[in-house]
Amino acid sequence: MTTPAEPGPQPDLEELLSRCENEPIHIPGAIQPHGTLLAFDGSAFDDFAFDDFAFGEAMAVVASTDASDVLGRPLTEVLGPDAAAAIAAAPLGQPLTFALAGSAIWPDRVVDLTAHRSGELLVVEVEEPSEVDLDSRFGVLDALRQLQTATSVDELVSSVGGVVRQLTGFDRIMVYRFDDEWNGEVVAEHRRASLDPFLGLRYPASDIPAPARALYLRNRTRLIPDAKHEPVPLVTSSARAASNPLDLSDSSLRAVSPVHLEYLANMGVAASMSAALVVDNQLWGLVACHHYDAPRRPSQRMRAAVDVIARVASVLLAQLISTAVATERLALFTQIDAMTSRLADADTDVIAELVSPDGQLRRLLDADGVVAFARGAIRRDGMCPPDDAVNALVRALDAASLDVFVTSNAAGVDTPRLREATAEVAPHAAGIVAHKAGDADDTTWLLWFRREQIESVRWGGDPTHKEMLRDPTGGLRLGPRRSFAEYVELVRDHSAPWTDAELEAARELTRRATAALERQVRRDRVLAAAMQKAVLLEALPEVPGTEVAVLYEPATRFGVGGDWYDLFFLRDGRAVLALGDVAGHGFEVAATMAQLRHAMRAYIVREGDLGAAMRELNELARTLLPGEMATAIVAVFTPDARRIDIINAGHLPPVVVRDHSTALLPLPRHPALGLRRDVEFTASTVTLAPNDAIVLYTDGLVERRDADLLAQLDALVARADQLRGTSPEALCRDLRDSLRDQAREDDATVFALRFPA
Amino acid sequence: MATVPELRAAIADARNRKAAHCVVDLTACTFIDSSGSRALANEAEAFESEGLQLSVHCPLEHRKIRFVIELVGLPEVMTVTPRDDAAQ
Hints:
The structure holds 2 protein chains of 2 kinds. In chain A, 34% of the residues lie in helices and 25% in strands. Chain B is globular, with a radius of gyration of 12 Å. The A-B interface holds A 378, 386-388, 391, 583, 627-629, 631, 649-652, 666-672, 675-676, 679, 708-710 and B 2-3, 5-6, 34-35, 38, 41-42, 45, 63-64, 67-68, 70-77, 87-88.
């Protein structure tokens, strides 16, 4: 037999492995000894010439048979005319039992036989009848009925294992299910009570190499009734065999790879039988039968019954799998419909509606956390990576121009442009599904995260074990592992896999979120613009004794921002100017500023006092903007005295344009509106000389990404100084032209006032 | 410290540990905007409600940062050191 490899020239393990993967197992040139294989050449059944191939060893029941007795003789002579006629009449593959009347070699022996074609040849496989047969072991019809009652994949695989054990009487029946890498996991088991359970164990892909898997698609059952047999070489009368070896793909007697026999011996298996479970033309799994103490040989008819059972189970399996997928899909789409119908009526933020604390978006994909990343802001639900890691991931996805990204092993991502970002996510989440929603210039990412799930995989023996063996001719080959002791491997860095239905749901939800976001953006822009139009004055009213001008320019992206201004009169004829800025963009901000503006009017008219009105406005802002704030500057002017009473609540300081002393106006500090309760506001008074001007503005005039705010304010003062004497209108326009950021990412408002000489 | 959520998390952590006095040192801070100032003000309020104190340290010569935090009125709602006596 075989011995472990001697130390010697370094053997190439990869090459040996690939030899196993490429072994031509369909043309072994030999058969197992439990039957006789006869190959007949001929165009008509009644005079098949028994030409090229014959058997080696006779069946045990057949005495004194020699290949030379049959070589060159026709089917009618070898098996007798009745058997030949029955073979001709029966469909190929049909198991038949005959007393061979008129047979030249086995006169009147009762045998089982099956015929099939191999190329030009008719192959007849003859076996001694076996007591493991449908004559004495009942239940095929019950078995078929029982399979049909299964309502889940688990139930079905258990059921198929049970009925096969019932019929065949093997010691152990396991149902393997193959994973994407062709490792087989034992998903159902029926065994003699005294045997150790193998349920849940996994067997590496190399246990059933690619050629064997391919053959299972064609010839769905495989029997090795005695693992300790010696194969019998085929005998032929002509030289044709060498150049045209007999293809035994469809044969049941086909010899077994010596590596596999050794594998069975190492496992302590005396007899084995397998039947393929095939779904969508792919090998889904195997029903594997083991017998331990003695050989076991189910008859041809019994094997045909197992073959039918496995085929029926395969069909049922396909149905149950597609039903399960459809059910999962339906459940997910029902959830998506519920979520998106809310999106359609929601007046609120789509993102806020999606990532709501009820966790629906998270649960949709059975994720641990979900993040919506919109306009640089992160909204999260559940367990997510920290913001830095999310930011880095989104930046990397954008940089790689990806719209979709899925992994269940963040630590193992090797795409160069993503590797760094996914590595940052990996300590917090192993599974990522990322989808880009929203339009091109207003990107929103939806990201689902799943935690690492440390899985202990119980292998049936160390899957990494490989052993080199030297065969009798001195060649090296791969030996199967000897130990099948359970070997537990911890698989880390992986999340539970995302199912196809879940990924489809993520796609669909993203598509609908995009549509909702687009609707929201359009609606927001229209509403915000309408509201701002209502808030901002079409034209400033004439203020007797003063020259005033305002210039308002909305942001180019994101719709209108939070700038607001107002100019109105008190009963005593004084004019009030209010200028403010609410942080943010969009409809909600526009609504807030409208409220602030109207409240300001009401308070100051009621209170008559600027400080008191501001105090109330601050309390309102506190209520309107929890956790937010708004800045405002409010001035009341008395034209006769060229006097301005002014309060600055957290706003940028005004510029006073005077002869040789243009400067930012130092004012007492008041916190921005909404920053805290109970603030006392005290107005300051500024008196201007004739032709002096005061300029109020919002941060959109001076803030820009590439320049420091203080430097911009210096520039503003310098430019305003050069403009002394110009009209308020020209002043506003010039300051905008010289200072405003071209990107116009925020609203900008400039207001100028002067008392003419 | 790069972002407002991070700042918040660090401060919330100090509050959970019931640090009697927590100082946010902006000496190494290169940029702060209104959302950062707002976060500080909100946190100061949360500290105060638990009888704890949160203050901000920012050197006077760190003008850009001082300007922004003073502009929105942070010194009016929480302790900012060193005090700017020149301020009105």
